[in-house]
Amino acid sequence: MPIHTPAWVRDAVFYQIFPDRFARSGRVPFDAPPEPWDSPPTTYGFKGGDLDGVTDRLDYLQDLGVTAIYFCPIFASAANHRYHTYDYMTVDPLLGGNDALRRLLDGAHERDMKIVLDGVFNHASRGFWQFQHVLENGAASPYREWFHFDPARLTHRKPFQPYPSEEAAAELRAGHGSLEAVGYAAWWNLPALPKFNTDCPAVREFLLSVAEYWVQFGIDGWRLDVPNEIDDDSFWGEFRQRVRAINPDTYIVGEVWGEASRWLQGDMWDAVMNYQITAACLGFFGGDKLDLEEARRPSSFSHVRAFSAQEFADQVARVTGMYDPEIVASQLNLLDSHDMPRFVTCCGGDKHALKMAWLFLCTSAGAPCIYYGDEVGVDGAHDPDCRKGFPQNEADWDTNLRDWYADCIALRKAHPATRSTNKTLLQAKDSAVAFLSKADGQNIVSAFNAGTREVLLDLQLPTAQPWNVLLATGPGLELKSTSNGVTLLLPGRSAVVAGA
Amino acid sequence: MPIHTPAWVRDAVFYQIFPDRFARSGRVPFDAPPEPWDSPPTTYGFKGGDLDGVTDRLDYLQDLGVTAIYFCPIFASAANHRYHTYDYMTVDPLLGGNDALRRLLDGAHERDMKIVLDGVFNHASRGFWQFQHVLENGAASPYREWFHFDPARLTHRKPFQPYPSEEAAAELRAGHGSLEAVGYAAWWNLPALPKFNTDCPAVREFLLSVAEYWVQFGIDGWRLDVPNEIDDDSFWGEFRQRVRAINPDTYIVGEVWGEASRWLQGDMWDAVMNYQITAACLGFFGGDKLDLEEARRPSSFSHVRAFSAQEFADQVARVTGMYDPEIVASQLNLLDSHDMPRFVTCCGGDKHALKMAWLFLCTSAGAPCIYYGDEVGVDGAHDPDCRKGFPQNEADWDTNLRDWYADCIALRKAHPATRSTNKTLLQAKDSAVAFLSKADGQNIVSAFNAGTREVLLDLQLPTAQPWNVLLATGPGLELKSTSNGVTLLLPGRSAVVAGA
């Protein structure tokens, strides 16, 4: 079937915000003070970021070149990450409530900036209305089909254990399923996250109406949390039809760390969070700084390893070859997120790695996405450390890095070839790799040397026009035209983009 | 201080509705069928009554003479009685949501009928937002001051047990407090009902703003659930000021089964649910049919006992003498409620007792209140049996009884003296008692014989006018004028009202 993805995504630059940690407006009251903004993040602590704080900083994001924001969940949830949804129809009061989202949408749309929300449809929280209704009433609740319950507990013969006793917790630790240990199926057997029974018509209708409601409200897309766990193509097919009927430009991007062809045939989602390219970037740009122990912390990243230039080129070809070009051009390309250590931390704190990788994303098809704070040098180990408060004091920002981020974005906007799916490998040699991207008669060469020693590349190019350096990580590189292309001397840990 | 109660209450006839059990509109979808309407009520079962069902039956209530409805709780709650509030700003979706309340208010107000809601401000439910927030986050939650928590659980050293494990349940059964057994203070140590910390400014503001919100929405009064457990006069003083500022005619009636002078000085509430008069009526009108075992089921009714006519008269004098006449005229006088066995059941099923008692309430100062279904002969033992579905089939109604209810109400409306606080004992003799009520130059005699044998009363009356029977339970009574009053021959189990 023909694949249609929203045109705006192909040209978009995303910024991912963890709402509790990006910015605090100071206008949302806290009944008891949150933890200090600059203290190390904790599992349960709130720092008090809110949506008006984001609205106040839209100019900052616009100056950076950002055109779309992807938010981690914002609906009412008794967790700082808000993946435990309490009320799908209400923006968390600690984030400012629905009115704050209205102000944010208005402010963003005035700037032609899109807003994508995180949709957690696989599971609710143990505080969720229909779930609590069954905990209280057992089989007598009209919501008894909404989740997967242990029949013995539905009849009150045995107590549910949503907040497990020490005994129930021990059972879980011993590997018993949550259905057995606490009385219901839960995501990863975590009692906080009861899994919806999406075979129940009322549940489907509820979830799909939530998806519709917020698109109607004005959001521009849904990032879908663990959507592969709703193992039902008809659900996602209907999801697409219903949100697209309201706004045909709604972006639908699934969180799938692995291969995702099943959902990317044009009838379900537009894209996935491209953790496959993340892994490739870590393995290559990390170079000898790659901290494998840290990088492998996310369970899906246990395979991450160092790549030579040729291996990286193979990975890039593999990842971009997985899907239709329309999908590739719509992927959400990211270096890190709230679910993994910061890229710079995986690379032993080396900002050269980050700068090269960001330039690589900005010269690749698919929308590059900045995880908030990466652009000013925020580091952080695995969750919760990767969720620090964005530095409030500009003196703590790496403005050189931020300027690099802005320069890469500006380059991407100025040169459509950077976003083209027509991208080929020119050469992979030692620790260096070069690609050629084409669009609208324009050619772009992007080249990266992840090693510490300089590499000389001899690139055959399809045009005799003079090639000019458009952007480079630093001094020391040499670009010379040859009869059929250029030679490129790349210092260690450097990258360059040239155009003709 | 001068006492001002809403004028409308003094002339009101209330009807108490248990929302799940009065009437089903059929327009609220249930995801799984509720239990059969006519089956015996169960602890957890829902029968599916809703607010539109009530709106559909406003004509029935109007025909009966009802002028005000007092609803058991209607806000979102995972319990069929809805005392476990989940969301104070939302009418339970199973009752039709906020829109259904709007329709009900409009329909009632068109008929000049008032709506009083049940306000459960002492405790929330274990599903309540701010409570769940602390269960999840412990001391890191900004809501940590909203309830009374065990410090050891706040720091996650020990799990909260809102749904107690078998061990925690055993501790509770052994008499340990909920703070110790499950980690927080709860009403009657019931884990479902965490007690608010009303010393926390945010909690006060929340509860008072809820009270304001619904008065602004259009309700005419608050019945306060266990309000004496908020042991803080300043709270109730502010409560009164704030709701009265919005609508000076807002009725505030507390659920206090005992003496309540503390709150009835004019600066807090207007009235209480007059369970003191209930107990007196049971003791007298029950006569030899009084089922003490059933009547004493509510913990506050352990003192209920049979009364002679003189004892009853003493009780009436005691109860009406407790408070200022302005308060007495505004009391909510009831024969039974959702919290006790039906009056008729306490009286061994004897409807004479019910008829006499209802006439007594209708000839007493204070607003008489019908517990839904009493008027058609619904019986029921202690909770949950006292919460049966209102018979759907008119063939199952005792229409004779209903007509009696209507006649008593009509009498009350036609004769202001019935509502007067100027009521004196004329005579108490054997099993019979007679009262004289005066208002606007009108005199009313009400007389009741709770025994099985006839009693002759010789009543001295202040007027030489002829006395006429206005209403009587049945034939056989004889009323004769004397030089200074009347003689009244009352058959066993009968009552009469005469006017001059």
TrEMBL record, chains A, B:
CDD domains: AmyAc_CMD. Residues 16-412 form the Glycosyl hydrolase family 13 catalytic domain. This is Neopullulanase. The keyword Hydrolase applies. Its EC number is 3.2.1.135. One of its GO terms (biological process) is carbohydrate metabolic process. It holds the Pfam family Alpha-amylase. It comes from the Bacteria. Keywords: Glycosidase, Hydrolase. PANTHER family: ALPHA-AMYLASE FAMILY MEMBER, MALTODEXTRIN GLUCOSIDASE. The keyword Acetylation does not apply. One of its GO terms (molecular function) is neopullulanase activity.
